[in-house]
Write a structure and sequence with these properties.
2 domains
Length: about 80
Amino acid sequence: MKRLWRALGVATFMTLRGLFTLARATAQVDRAFVSGLGEPFLVAGRAFAQAIARAHRGNAQDMMLLYLAGLALLLVGRLFGS
């Protein structure tokens, strides 16, 4: 039982360490992107998402799908915009 708890602790530690490493790398890429040429894409994506939110009159599931589509557009803009 002691080995199981130790293994769980090590697995949790390594998972959190990996997530924090990924978060730091993402923040650096995001900072470089916003300071570069990607800002117009971010502004356009935010405006598009806000326009969808104002125009939408459907149920919550439809709104969630549109929200996820807007997030996908922002991600594409961040990845390929610079």
